[in-house]
Amino acid sequence: MHIEVIGQGPALVLIHGWALHGGVFAPLVDRLSAHLQLHLVDLPGHGASRDDTTPLRLPHVVNAIAAATPPAVWCGWSLGGLFALHAAATLPQVRALAMIAATPRFVRGEDWPHAVEPAVFEQFGQDLAQDYRGTLERFLALDAMGSEHARQELRTLREMLVARGEPAPRALQEGLRLLENTDLRGALAQLGKPSLWLAGQRDRLVSARAMQAAAALTPGAQAHVIAQGGHAPFLGHTTEVAAQLQHFVAALP
């Protein structure tokens, strides 16, 4: 698995969302590399790890990342949050957890109302087989939708999508299944580590209410809403997200 290391200071592992790669965090790298040692993961089937056949499942991926990184704070965006949360709940070397536009459960349920309908991920899976590039384009549009910087963010996401080659269809289907079927809420009460939950106020995929609900289930959690932010707030509101992450890591014992 490709993991790029940039910067110096306390270690921060950054895990990207569905269909993208570690390069999407470039704006954060510019702000944080003077203060933190950033470990930018390309998940299996994505970016420079496109030919990595490691199954896109939580234990497999988390153990592979952990074997290649030092004790660190783990930060996950969107789908990447599931890997970061699983690692924080199971691995002592994870010092703390940061979640950006990510929750322990992405689909709606009777006791989890502020989430996506299960049929949405099922439809994306069906559409991928029929119109691969069109489906990715629609997903990127959802990533940017709502943000006050939506056009700029969508342009950046489009460029990033192909910057390291298109993601493997197998990995995209496995990622959708993770989003559709994973529920890690049971890990929150016993997490026992500092956590930071950064939500975009205008996020159309992961609502700020869902992130606040998850933080409320996590003892000692900090929650912050990025005003006017969408699903990728580190693109349009880089300074605010970077400041939150830097302060969170600096305050750790």
From TrEMBL:
Classification via NCBIfam families: bioH
Organism in which the protein naturally occurs: Stenotrophomonas rhizophila
Record note on quaternary structure: Monomer.
Entry keywords, A to Z: Biotin biosynthesis, Cytoplasm, Hydrolase, Serine esterase
Pfam family, one: Abhydrolase_1
GO biological process: biotin biosynthetic process
Reactions catalysed, as given in the entry: 6-carboxyhexanoyl-[ACP] methyl ester + H2O = 6-carboxyhexanoyl-[ACP] + methanol + H(+)
Function: The physiological role of BioH is to remove the methyl group introduced by BioC when the pimeloyl moiety is complete. It allows to synthesize pimeloyl-ACP via the fatty acid synthetic pathway through the hydrolysis of the ester bonds of pimeloyl-ACP esters.
Active site: 78 (nucleophile), 203, 231
Entry similarity comment: Belongs to the AB hydrolase superfamily. Carboxylesterase BioH family.
EC primary class: hydrolase
Subcellular location: Cytoplasm
EC number: 3.1.1.85
PANTHER family recorded: HYDROLASE ALPHA/BETA FOLD FAMILY, PIMELOYL-[ACYL-CARRIER PROTEIN] METHYL ESTER ESTERASE
Gene transcribed to yield this protein: bioH
The protein's name in its UniProt record: Pimeloyl-[acyl-carrier protein] methyl ester esterase
Source superkingdom: Bacteria
Pathway: Cofactor biosynthesis; biotin biosynthesis
Lineage of source species: Bacteria, Pseudomonadati, Pseudomonadota, Gammaproteobacteria, Lysobacterales
GO CC field: cytoplasm
Keyword flag Transit peptide: no
Residues noted as binding substrate in the record, renumbered to the chain: 18, 78-79, 139-143, 231
A GO MF term: pimelyl-[acyl-carrier protein] methyl ester esterase activity
InterPro entries: AB_hydrolase_1, AB_hydrolase_fold, BioH, Carboxylesterase_BioH
Domain AB hydrolase-1: 10-237
